[in-house]
Design goal:
The structure is a homodimer. The first copy, chain A, is α+β, with helices and mostly antiparallel strands. The first copy, chain A, has 17 helices and 20 strands. The interface between A and B is large, with 101 and 101 residues.
């Protein structure tokens, strides 16, 4: 294997753009849009990045249409940017080289549900909340819950997770099979509907987390779970982040099958209070949930309360009442939005890192010291069961000095996580904004191996160029 | 992407073999062996296949030595066959083109255990039983348990699972990170020690299940679990395979976190009785295990007993006594060996398929009819929670007519599973013997995608040639 570098992609010429527009409009009529407003709406992710609009947006309705679109683009060397809901956080859907944004929002059907097999088949534009609404009557749910109401296709592509990962895993653990259109326009199905298989290379997991750089996901078979008979949940204050982390680790080591264990630091609790009027004491806090039978969630809750007490935390106030639990978890899921209450008018450059559990308290504490020294406003929430935490620095993006301070802070954050055997992103993905950190995380040989695969499957480099790998 | 076919590999010339032998002996002395006995011992897997010995066997002791060996072989176009314990079942370690068998049994160390992170780092030659013995004192265990005392490296490469997969997943779910030597000799580390990551392509999962065709695994970071406070287990007879499957599905749908649920058909129970003197009624049977707290395993066992009763099964006799449980599970793990009691002197061509849970009873029942019509002796055991089952047809390999009958039977079995949206192998892998079925399972485009990846990472085709893909 020789070292490869991605070809720096050239923006297609005006003639190419015109030719592709014409060809796609001929096929799909007003499902091809070139207005600036629509292009700009497709040109940035949820966190702050400069807008980079595509040349056009197209809304396919079938896998075959996606294949046709890709073939047209491939024939013209035109970049393709797969688009779900635009709620990712690292510039994944920006179009730095222009190209065709393939918006999957019309491919949002629930194709099949198989209750006995605990799986379902969905189109990529289906969002996670809609899916769970459609499944509820059958007593089933899909657990992966990034904050936003993301599309399942987007969640596949960023290898998303969320608050339930400690119990149910991430997207990598919950995708059974994928249908995808490759950069050649060919349609592949990666696996059968069997729960497990040893039949050849794991193309499913290769596409999960590939951020649309190896193909466009057009159908997904997902694992489902029975809605637990009982759910108990609550919050537990701790004297320090370390005490909260230690209690969480002890809980997991003891084998208590905790479903959710979320850390909020004191500043984040303040933001929750401002945003959702929760009236919580502004101290580090764990948000906890247990799933099981009535008896088992009672037992789990009691045992967690005892562990919290050992580490100086508590009281652990828990409930099995849905309305009380929902209010708490709504606040937790709104963490991103709540941060804006801390500095009205500011924007954010949200990010995440992930470290081994044993280093989580170290990493958060060092980051707190850094925040204090730097004087920025940056609440922290963490998926303690995974060692994954999020920062939401509130920033005036018009102020270059402030942006520089934040950039340097984020740089130290990633390096701190990597030094602790961690990763530059636990669940957001690389996108544009973490390309330089991917190079710090992996050796040249490892990164080259990824590039060799990219080059082999996408020799023209048309599939979501300018993401994951720097030119 | 253009269609690729693997280059039909040519056996290296006598001169090449002599040159490689000399070069490796110069470096590793008597850790290079060319005697026929040792070569033949490395030339076949556990199930019956014709012996295909490599040209030599080498025992490296470090990742760097593996890298050197691969570089020597690459320079001479010499095939490389990674070797663990030789307990795989589809001809994975046979050397159809000769070459160097790289035996990892001297690389069998436990490099590190991180109890707080619930992970450990092992070398590939470590076996699963030895690992669990070393972990026990720390209250930890590694759950994946194929029947044999396989090496962890081999388990990675076949994407192995076993009886605990319904609760703990398969190797794909339990490998955090890998170090591997690629066909170029380059060393890559696929991921950090963080529990999850969205940092680039999932090279970990690409190597898990690649059967040594993309590289040699030299170090593995594995997820661990706390040994449950309590374990209850037992057996439950059922009037039919269907009743047993339905009870298992209902248990899983209800959300009871069953740890093991294994089906044995009446003939398999007879084999257990002959082999281990269990004195069980010779009827379809589920072997069950629950993990949790004392209270929760009691509750789970009681609830399972009620479900079994609903489907005409029972009584469910369970115990938390380790010695009684161990006897039962030893019998289950010896399923392979017990089958030889049914036809002394015979050999077996063991195989597995996997279907969606809802089709398992259909698939087993149709296979039973086929067995009855064909008149062969073939017990069935199944991982009911995964839809995965094993056949162990006992056969006189000297009798060509009998071999033909078995081959045709296995052919019908795989086609039956594929027609039910299943896979040609749930956990054994493709090896040599299922290459033709991989072509039935996947479309040409999907198989081509796998071949493109193989070709990109191993342009000479030296890494375990003649496996997974036909020439």
């Amino acid at each position: 294997m020789t070292a490869h570098h991605s070809v720096p992609f050239a923006r297609p010429s005006a003639e190419t753009v015109a030719a592709v527009t014409l060809e796609l409009q001929k096929r799909y009529g007003n499902r091809v849009v070139t207005s600036l407003a629509v292009r700009e709406q497709h040109g940035h992710t949820l966190t702050w990045t400069a807008n980079q609009p595509p040349d056009m947006v197209v809304w396919p309705e079938t896998t075959e249409e996606v294949s046709e679109i890709v073939k047209v683009c491939a024939a013209h060397g035109m970049p393709i940017i797969p688009y779900g809901t635009g709620t990712s956080l690292e510039g994944h859907v920006n179009a730095p080289y222009g190209g065709v944004s393939v918006d999957t929002s019309r491919m949002n059907g629930l194709v099949a549900v198989h209750p006995e097999d605990l799986d379902c088949v969905v189109q990529p534009g289906m969002t996670r909340k809609t899916l769970n609404e459609l499944l509820r009557d059958q007593g089933l749910f899909f657990p992966i819950d990034p904050g936003a109401d993301a599309s399942i296709g987007g969640m596949v592509s960023t290898r998303a997770s969320g608050t339930n990962a400690v119990r149910y895993g991430t997207m990598k653990d919950n995708v059974v099979s994928l249908t995808a259109v490759l950069p050649s326009g060919e349609i592949v199905k990666t696996a059968s509907r069997a729960k497990k298989s040893s039949a050849g290379y794991d193309l499913t997991r290769l596409l999960v987390g590939a951020e649309g750089t190896l193909g466009i996901i057009t159908e997904i078979t997902l694992k489902l779970y029975g809605i637990p008979e009982a759910i108990s949940g609550g919050i537990c204050p701790f004297p320090s982040v370390r005490a909260a982390c230690d209690a969480a680790i002890m809980t997991i080591q003891t084998g208590i099958p905790i479903a959710r264990v979320e850390l909020a630091d004191a500043l984040q609790v303040k933001a929750f209070n401002l945003h959702a009027k929760l009236g919580l004491p502004e101290t580090p806090m764990l948000f906890i949930e247990f799933h099981g039978s009535e008896e088992s969630v009672k037992e789990q809750s009691t045992r967690f309360g005892e562990i919290a007490d050992e580490f100086g935390g508590g009281p652990f106030e828990w409930t099995t009442k849905p309305e009380d639990r929902t209010k708490l978890w709504q606040a937790r899921h709104d963490a991103y939005w709540s941060c804006f209450t801390l500095r009205p008018g500011a924007k954010t450059v949200a990010t995440d890192v992930c470290v081994p559990l044993s280093r989580l308290a170290d990493c958060v504490e060092e980051t707190h010291r850094d925040i204090a020294e730097t004087g920025i406003i940056s609440p922290i929430v963490g998926h303690v069961g995974d060692g994954n935490f999020h920062l939401t620095p509130m920033v005036d993006i018009e102020n270059p000095e402030e942006m520089r301070v934040i950039e340097e802070f984020l740089d130290r954050l990633v390096k701190r996580a990597l030094a602790m055997e961690g990763t530059c992103t636990g669940e957001h993905g690389v996108g544009q904004k973490k390309m330089k950190y991917l190079e710090l995380e992996h050796s040249a040989a490892t990164l080259d191996t990824m590039r060799v695969i990219k080059r082999a499957l996408d020799p023209q480099g048309i599939m979501n160029p300018g993401k994951i790998f720097r030119g």
